[in-house]
Amino acid sequence: MSKSPWQLFCVVIVISLPLTQQLTLLEWIESKGGHAHLSVGPVNAAGLRGTLATRDIAEGETFVYIPKELIVEFGAPAHNKPPENAARLLARQRKDPAWHAAFLPYWRSLPAPGSSAIFCKEVFTEHHIALLQDAEMAGVVREEVGVAKQVFNGSSKWWQRWLGQAPPVSLQGILSEGTAHNISWEEFAHTTCYVGAYGFGCRGVWGSRQVCMVPLLDMINHASPETANAIVHQDEGNGSYGCTATQAIKAGEEVTQTYSAAALRSDYTLLHYGFALDLERPLLAGLDHIAGFEYPDDDLYLQHQSLMSHDEVARLNSILASFPTSEAADLQLLHGSSALHDGERQVLQFRIQRKRALRNMLGQIQRQLQQTGGGTGELEDRTSGEGHLEL
Ligand SMILES: *[C@@H]1O[C@H](CO)[C@@H](O)[C@H](O)[C@H]1NC(C)=O
Ligand SMILES: *[C@@H]1O[C@H](CO)[C@@H](O)[C@H](O)[C@H]1NC(C)=O
Ligand SMILES: *[C@@H]1O[C@H](CO)[C@@H](O)[C@H](O)[C@H]1NC(C)=O
């Protein structure tokens, strides 16, 4: 019995139906009822990856919709550290192969281990730490790597976990012995890196705060509020994610958003996301700001009359004088050598931004002091302490 043309047609359709595994990220999002007028590609001459509008978008238009079922939830409160969420993610991928397979287009979109697309504290070498020129930041990096190692090798004691001195989650605790040992430190550090850098604050059960991963939207690059052209938001009712233009965007233009107020400071972006922007007028590093990361801008600092003082000038000057290199020397290192790796470039860019911000702020305070005839010289309101780096 020969097949009718109709039967042959059906056979062809069935064979050519794409498996989830073969879908591109955008096809996968559309197959689940989402949509996005975005493409992923290089956004600058250096080949930085980002997102580009695929058509003209009007101000106020929501041009990306990611349904809730495509969002990766860690099922843990927001204060969980990235290594703990990385352990949850790796465990679920291994314990639930069907779920893992269903999300393959998303996993494939994440930076591969060893790729220069992502750089964070878990993959810092001693060389990167030395390049920071800051003992407190070096301490934060070592501490965070230590926490990741505790989660990775389950080395913290039960009483340390009970006292809150160690993370409560360990990879061995979530996975059976053999499987946990199958994950290399490199894979774990890399996973921790993107879980931390790509995570979004989102709503969990009963409205609690948690951390989520949101496919595609996690590839939108960060920009300062003056230049960012979009915002990412979660729908209160159904948990889906959207991206809305805050100004008109032309087809082919890069789409950017401001990650958070803290992300306006170079030390935070370096340690949390692995980059430092190249800005003419950067804000002070959180470490050098009297209130840490709390304030979204430095103008508030300038409105703080008690900070318009010679004491503050001396404090900022002593930070500037503590660096073994000048901004000019850092610039020369950054632009004079083609042998630098991306991670080293980011640390050098941070050093330049930090020094530039200190210099700018010193100039502003000194000008203000001259106008007001010298200031009081007193600093009464320093109770908030030095900007302490908390990640
Ligand atoms: C586990 O991590 C801790 C903290 O870094 C380290 O001191 C210890 O040697 C590690 N143990 C193993 C077995 O890797
Ligand atoms: C380790 O992982 C590989 C690939 O991910 C897998 O094929 C192998 O079965 C795993 N071994 C154990 C003991 O889980
Ligand atoms: C979820 O809410 C958004 C509006 O924020 C709406 O566009 C979308 O259709 C809703 N999705 C579902 C599944 O109800």
Automatic annotation (TrEMBL):
Residues 379-391 have a biased composition (Basic and acidic residues). Residues 36-260 form the SET domain. InterPro entries: Rubisco_LSMT_subst-bd_sf, SET_dom, SET_dom_sf, SETD3_SETD6_MTase. It comes from the Eukaryota. The keyword Nucleotidyltransferase does not apply. Residues 368-391 are annotated as: Disordered. Residues 1-22 form the signal peptide. Keywords: Methyltransferase, S-adenosyl-L-methionine, Signal, Transferase. This is SET domain-containing protein. It comes from Coccomyxa subellipsoidea. The lineage of its organism: Eukaryota, Viridiplantae, Chlorophyta, core chlorophytes, Trebouxiophyceae.
